[in-house]
Amino acid sequence: MAKKAVHATFVRALDKAHTEEDVKNVVAKQFDITYDTADRNDLYTPRVLFEFKFDKNFASLRQRAAVLAQALYYMRRLKFGYTDRPIPGHICLADRNEGLLFDAAALRDVYADEAHAYDWDLAPSSPDPRLTAALLLLPAVRDAHVYDLRQETEYEAWAARLAGALASQAALGLADKKVITERNFEEVYHYWNNQFGESVRNGKKSSRYFMADIQEGRSLAQPGQGRVLFNLGTGAWVDKKILPRAYDYFWSLYEKVTNPDTMRALVAKIDRLSDEESRRREGEFYTPLSFAAKALDYLERTLGPRWWATGQYRLWDMAAGTGNLEYGLPTDALPFCYLSTLDQVDVDHCQGLFPGATIFQYDYLNDDIGNLFNTESLGYLDAWKLPKTLRDDLANPALKWIVLINPPFATSQTAGTAAPGKKSKDLVSATRVQKVMHREGLGETSRELFAQFLFRIRRDFQGKTAHLGMFSKTKYLNATNDHFLRERVFRYEFERGFVFSSANFAGTKGKFPVGFLLWNLGRERALDDQIVELNVFNEQVEKVGTKLFSTQHRDQFLSKWVPRPRTKRVFPPFSAAITVSTRTTDVRDQVAPGFLASLMCAGNDFQHQNNTALLSGPYASAGALSVVPANFERALVVHAVRRLPKATWLNDRDQFLAPAAEPLPADFVAGCVAWSLFSNSNQTAALAAVPYQGTTYSVPNHLYPWAKAEVRTWPLKDLDVQRTLTAADPDRHAAAWLLVHAAALPPAAQALLAAARPLYQFFYAHLPALRTGHFRIGTWDAGWFQVRNALADQNLAPDLLADVKRHHAALGQWLLPQLAPLGFLP
User: Which InterPro entries does this entry report, sorted A to Z (predicted)?
Assistant: First the structure.
């Protein structure tokens, strides 16, 4: 095909592009590039890294630099990461109109950035503005030629350069190679071992050959013979047959280790290479190494680089386990570290991993309690178990301390007292520290092992210059149950931290935020007076945003905002919409005078969002209140507020709050009432003849939305149901409320009611075709649960149901943006 025709075909394809993905497809097809988008980059080849946009205007230097900055994040991962892929020699930027090609060597000093001048934690799509600003000043960026792909001669020049870069045979002997460091040496070893392990293993661990191979002068390839000589440190050279092509390729990727400090650190950690499986055993809250390494970065940002080199700091992890938190520490930091753990098997394990550190078996919640607290009356006077060196260091006022810990999070359900015959977790917190906490009036707080650790840490480091770096759930920042912990124990100044999803931990159930927060134990400050801002990391340990955590007094919680009337009379308790509970213990079967419905609202944070529903009788267990005329509006507002926002792992521990000011806007209240009436969590129903404890009850549906006068005008084909529509039966509370407040209904609520009316009319007209017995439909005031499920059960009126659902969602979208400004969300 002639050049002119090739260009015309290319331009026509670009004209059809509507997204950057389309642009990528066009360029890949034009240059016959096989897709490789691993590590979530746009397109990778060993010789060219591509970054595509749809229509970016690369003639703008600022936009050009911003897109190039994004590409450099991927280049840095290739340089320092664990992938076995080469670092490309070129970077290509392209959109539907323009293209650029950069020589990667001209940008090496930027993406290598050994001084950490830029924030490489960020996701590539949101690069550090400082990096973008630095690129603006580089001649390679400022003077780069922007090819107009719409012009034939410009396209041909760009295509020729790109084709040359793609066809380059410079895969071997690249100018820029990957480095082997303490952080990535294990992954590099696994790649090396997969390639050459079987060839070298002969009575000696392959890791010994690897350590020789990565050092300059300790291995020697024999050109043309397919053999490599290794000096294992015994004086003699060992000859091994190794495939030359694979061996040459490996060393085209990586640099030999020439820094003696790095090599000493790797030699000290060599045993880790053969201990991988046991170290990575799965378990609840077994801290992922990538996030543990990030925690060490945050320590250095707070205390300064190489904080251990001054000799002024000591680090103690009193719940070290298998040492994941300390795994990334340089070898020369270990002599300043104390690691204690409950199990001797973990002590033995850590002693092989951390040469120079002081490692000992210790029960932090039981050992030495009599020596730290005045506990003679409790009988806890024992000989010291702490090593004398640690006791001496703790007594040395010149030393500064780092507590690095991921404390256990088991909770006793009974604050240390077990029910007869019950084992589960009831006794898990029955420790000596708990007894001391009980003595000091912290009984409820002491149920958490986590809180017990913090209680003793406060005692151990009171009056010292100390920092606490802690992995934990974030509930202690704002949860109701941790109120006394914040007031009496945990009163420290926040310094910095990050948060990520619990899904990164093996063995955890559910998704909730896990934070690593650094606190200054030498500066006392109430959490209520602080705004804690944390960086948010995704699974790839990329910073994707920030999250504010604020601590409110529990009197501000939404659960405290609804008046809870005193219950006085027995009524059938419900476990579901039309199911009367049969439980026999802890039964909640009483309602308040004027009872309309039960609002189930257990807990006060997003993790309890699903524990929010409206029922026609008292909820059979704890966590509900009687809805009566006096609290009707607040109750339905609470129901809507708790149900409207989408729960995510990040907001899982956020508290719902009482509104910042009252009265609330009338249209907002009316919108919440209408939304609640047609929510799937409105489980109210009308039931006739409900037997309970020897009495038969009638259960009306007080959340029925239509006036009786209107219902009488609708065709009602079931005679039994029609007979219940008597003059003596009054309008239901919700219907009467809607009539009185009709003027306050926002347009979206009016549209919802208008969409629901024909659905109810259809329901009554088709009652004979429905399984009324199955859904216990026997009265005119059928619940929304009964109406929608009976129709869906027979696949009737799907369009009408979908219309109600659509208008209900639209009302929710109108209400949702108002929650934060009104103060319901932090």
Answer: SAM-dependent_MTases_sf (IPR029063)
Pairing verdict, β 48-52 and 90-94? parallel
Distance between CA atoms of 181 and 188, rounded to whole angstroms? 9
Give the per-residue pLDDT at 519. Answer: 98
Average the pLDDT over 603-620 and give the result.
Answer: 90
CB 691 within 8 A of CB 721: no
Q: What confidence score (pLDDT) does residue 412 get?
A: 52
Q: Which of 644, 703, 702, 704 is nearest to 668 (CA)?
A: 644
Q: Which helix (H) or strand (E) holds 691?
A: strand 687-692
pLDDT in tens, 753-804: 999 999 999 999 999 999 999 999 999 999 999 999 999 999 999 999 999 9
Cα 330 from Cα 22, distance rounded (Å): 46
3-class DSSP assignment, residue 472: strand
Spatial distance between the Cα atoms of 672 and 560, rounded to a whole number of angstroms: 18
Asked if 498 and 515 touch (Cβ cutoff 8 Å), the reply is: yes
Cα–Cα distance between 342 and 360 in angstroms, integer? 9
Listed by start position, the domains of the chain span 3-167, 185-274, 284-551, 556-677, 704-821
Of the candidates 321, 355, 316, the one whose C-alpha atom is nearest the C-alpha of residue 338 is: 316
Side-chain half-sphere CA neighbours of 603 within 13 A: 17
Q: What mean pLDDT do residues 713-735 have?
A: 90
Q: What are phi and psi of 450, to 5 degrees?
A: -55, -50
The CA–CA distances, whole Å, from 33 to 13, 44, 85, 104, 588 equal 16, 9, 16, 19, 67
- Judged on CB neighbours under 10 Å (0-12, 13-18, 19+), 329 is buried
Three state DSSP letters for 360-405: EECCCCCCCHHHHCCCHHHCCCCCCCCCHHHHHHHCCCCCEEEEEE
Domain 284-551, architecture per CATH: 3-Layer(aba) Sandwich (3.40)
How many other CB atoms sit within 10 Å of the CB of residue 693?
9
Cβ contact 370:459 at 8 Å? no
DSSP 8-state code for residue 599: E
| Residue 544: C-alpha distances to residues 471, 535, 666, 803 (Å) | 19, 8, 38, 37
* Sole residue written with tokens 């029922």: 615
Note whether 313 and 302 are within 8 A (CB): no
**pTM attached to this predicted model:** 0.68
Q: Is the pLDDT of residue 37 over 70?
A: no
User: Whose CA is closest to 348, among 445, 260, 271?
Assistant: 271
Mean of the pLDDT values across residues 331-340?
A: 95
Task: Please report where in the chains the tokens 């000096």 appear, as a residue.
Answer: 231
Per-residue pLDDT tens over the stretch 637-663:
999 999 999 988 888 888 899 999 999
Tokens of 345: 């098997």
Q: How far apart are the first and last CA of the chain?
A: 63
Give the integer Cα–Cα distance in Å for 826 and 651.
10
Q: How far is CA 716 from CA 711, 735, 780, in A?
A: 9, 19, 9
Q: Are strands 400-405 and 492-501 parallel, antiparallel or unpaired?
A: unpaired
pLDDT of residue 518 exceeding 70, the answer is yes
Distance CA 314, CA 402 (A): 6
Distance CA 534, CA 515 (A): 8
Q: What is the CA radius of gyration of the chain?
A: 34
Q: Which of 29-43, 287-301, 714-728 has the lowest mean pLDDT?
A: 29-43
Structure tokens at 335: 């002599």
- Which residues are CB-contacts of 134 (< 8 A; sequence separation ≥ 6)? 110, 117, 118
Amino acid 545 reads G
